[in-house]
Write a structure and sequence with these properties.
heterodimer, A: mainly alpha, Cytochrome Bc1 Complex, Chain D, domain 2, two-stranded antiparallel sheet, 8 helices, 5% strand, B: mainly alpha, Cytochrome Bc1 Complex, Chain C, two-stranded antiparallel ribbon, globular
């Protein structure tokens, strides 16, 4: 009885699926969008922090931070990062303090209790670029510049994506349909999901001058910012990779010992060879 | 119950004797995972995944309790508290990555455990109750994992909560109010996050309880085995300790190695980048996908694209998605073949492999965008999925001629080996 019922239920679902399949096949059409055709995958990017033994290149992070501070920070926040965290980039205590002092953060007037601003301290977080989303939209042609703290983890191929996007602005190809051409206040970038980006090309050659003498090409600055944002998204990356090796080594050793004891315990229970 | 030749617990220390007379806890342990539990000697490595699943559950509970000490279940700060764990809590990043990847590993292990049951007929008498409790465990795991996915309050968290609770809105009449009742509002919000956190903390302990029942029910008939032939004599079994403790021990070591490799070197491989964007009710992600372990069932949900007579497509999809797991409850009564192991069932074995392929296809399609050709492919695979359990299995078990079974487990292991003489002849 239960099997007859089950066959009926089975027929119900399979016939319904066959029905869907038939309609699907009759109207079968592979998706085709302009985005599919013109969108490009991120360019390859190799950073010192890649790989099992990867370590941050402090010089590069400092350059990336400088680009962020002098260019990106005009619109993009970094709200998960505190000034004290910058010590990981190789700055000493005095330098971190000096960086913090360069910022005004929200505070309270100790005498009146009213909201005011004060100079930053190492324990403060980077102040927001805009007080709220409405202000951000108003200043940016109705687009909200996203927070950058987690950007390299919040996009597929994070670091390569940031690097490609920043260095990937170009003139729209001639074959691009009229509807997909960048409108007022938009800029063509094949690495961006819908091809047209509200952010104007932020980097020009020489827009910052690096203290370590590195030439500030668009290519170089894009890489440095990407490397810096890998650090902001995952400040514990080095520690994670360094911890992993002894853990894996220990587990491998313990597993081999476990396997050998398993072999010796079972020796008398296995079929003899021959 | 156990086999008459099972070792009996004999306290060696006066304190253990004293304890055993008052609260026989050491005896319970001895009889369930010690030398007092005889296990078929021929279990292969597919039988190690049950123990691994238990290890996964313990890892999830331990890391989860620590994470809960630093997590704030409030929609304004939940996302930031996760970042606080990642950045400022000592070893917080490790706890979170182990918890997130541990959940994925738990599902890998449990899928293998379930498909081992399909292949070796572990659901058949006298182990129906073990199987039923196992399906309950799987459903509890899915509920727990789903709610855990919502807690970081990223974009995928928010939209997964909206889509999954939206499934209930397909139920006629009560659907909409039911969804609002589940969410505690018209859309996922603070009420949703709070109740999901509460339940995400509660359900693992319910799972522990059902695991105890699952193992208890298993210990009544004892473990099944790759031949499916019941245990006949003492030479068919070995005591759990030390034999299977040793085997489980080294496989758990290998499992932890893989878990650590992913946790330390590709911790975000299985996650979705969108979940590192804070939840935003005003912006819908391009492709909303659940975590990968739900993909086969998500593919079944989306395979129903047309109304079926008076039943709307959405309701059909929801019925099929829940039905696709609920039909596992009927398995012991759908498959009437007296032979358990697919090793001796040539016809069933072929269909089992087709099911594996269909499941793999559903996995792939569930994670792909809802567009052609994935929809058409998932419809074919989903149709096979239902046909396999509900139509093919009952018919195959009626018409199939199984291969001859070995006389006993000992014979299957030792064959013509002279020690086979140790087993009593019929």
């Amino acid at each position: 009885m239960i099997r007859i019922l089950s066959i009926l239920v089975g027929l119900f679902f399979t016939v319904a699926l066959a029905w869907s399949l038939l309609t699907g096949l009759l109207n079968f059409e592979l998706p085709h969008t302009v985005e599919h055709e013109f969108h490009e995958h991120p360019k390859e990017l190799h950073l010192a922090s890649d790989g099992a033994f990867g370590k941050f290149d402090r010089q590069q992070l400092q350059r990336g931070f400088q680009v962020y501070k002098e260019v990106c920070a005009a619109c993009h926040s970094l709200r998960h990062v505190a000034f004290r965290d910058l010590a990981a980039l190789g700055y000493n205590e005095a330098e971190v303090k000096a960086i913090a002092v360069g910022y005004q953060v929200d505070g309270i007037d100790p005498n009146t209790g009213e909201a005011t601003t004060r100079v930053g301290m190492p324990t403060d977080y980077f102040p927001l670029a805009f007080p709220n989303d409405v202000a951000a939209r108003a200043a940016n042609n109705n687009a909200i510049p996203p927070d950058l703290s987690l950007m390299t983890k919040a996009r597929h191929n994070g670091a390569a994506y940031v690097y490609s996007l920043l260095s990937g602005y170009q003139d729209p190809p001639a074959a691009l349909p009229e509807d997909n051409r960048p409108g007022e206040g938009l800029y063509y970038n094949p690495y961006f999901a819908n091809l047209n980006l509200a952010m104007a090309p932020p980097l020009n050659e020489g827009i910052v001058s690096f203290g370590d003498g590195t030439k500030s090409t668009v290519e170089q600055m894009s890489k440095d910012v990407a490397a810096f944002l890998v650090w902001t998204a995952e400040p514990k990356l080095e520690k994670r990779k360094q911890t992993g090796l002894p853990v894996l080594g220990f587990l491998l050793f313990a597993t081999i010992l476990g396997f050998l004891s398993y072999k010796s315990i079972w020796a008398d229970k296995k079929k003899k060879k021959g | 119950m156990s086999f008459p030749w099972a070792n009996e617990y004999k306290p060696s220390h006066p304190f253990m004797q004293w304890m055993d007379d008052r609260l026989p806890l050491p005896r319970l342990v001895y009889n369930s995972v010690g030398a007092g539990y005889p296990v078929p000697r021929n279990l292969n490595y597919w039988w190690n995944f049950g123990f691994m699943a238990l290890v996964c559950l313990i890892i999830q509970i331990v890391t989860g309790i620590i994470l809960a000490m630093h997590f704030a279940a409030n929609d304004t700060v939940a996302f930031d508290s996760v970042e606080h764990i990642m950045r400022d809590v000592n070893w917080g990043w490790l706890m979170r990555y182990v918890h997130a990847n541990g959940a994925a590993a738990f599902f890998v292990v449990v899928y293998v455990h379930i498909f081992r049951g399909f292949y070796y007929g572990s659901y058949k008498a006298p182990r129906e109750m073990v199987w039923l409790l196992g399906v309950v465990l799987f459903l509890l795991m899915m509920a727990t994992a789903f709610m855990g996915y919502v807690l970081p309050w990223g974009q995928m968290s928010f939209w997964a909560a909206k889509v999954i609770t939206g499934l209930f809105s397909a139920i006629p009449m009560v659907g909409e109010p039911l969804q609002q009742w589940l969410l505690g509002g018209f859309a996922p919000g603070n009420a949703t996050l709070n109740r999901f956190f509460s339940l995400h903390y509660l359900l693992p302990f319910v799972i522990v309880g059902v695991v105890v029942l699952h193992i208890w029910a298993l210990h009544i008939p004892g473990s099944s085995n790759p031949t499916g032939v019941p245990v006949k004599s003492e030479s068919d079994t070995v005591p759990f300790f030390p034999y299977f403790i040793a085997k489980d021990g080294w496989t758990v070591g290998a499992f932890l190695f893989f878990l650590a490799a992913v946790t330390f070197y590709a911790p975000n491989m299985l996650g979705h980048p969108d979940n590192y964007i804070p939840a935003n009710p005003m912006s819908t992600p391009a492709h909303i996908v659940p975590d990968w372990y739900f993909w086969p069932f998500y593919a079944i949900l989306r395979a129903f694209t047309t109304d079926f007579f008076f039943i709307p497509a959405k309701l059909m999809g929801v019925l099929a998605m829940f039905g696709s797991i609920l039909i596992w409850f009927l398995l012991p009564w759908l498959d009437k073949s007296p032979v358990r192991s697919a090793s001796y069932r040539p016809l069933y074995r072929k269909f089992f492999y087709v099911l594996l392929v269909a499941m793999a296809v559903l996995f792939y399609c569930g994670g792909a965008p809802a567009e052609e050709p994935y929809v058409v492919i998932s419809q074919i695979a989903a149709a096979y999925y239902f046909a396999h359990f509900l139509i093919i299995l009952p018919i195959v078990s009626a018409i199939e001629r199984p291969d001859p079974l070995p006389y006993s487990i000992t014979e299957a292991v030792l064959g013509e080996d002279e020690s086979a003489a140790l087993s009593p002849a019929e």
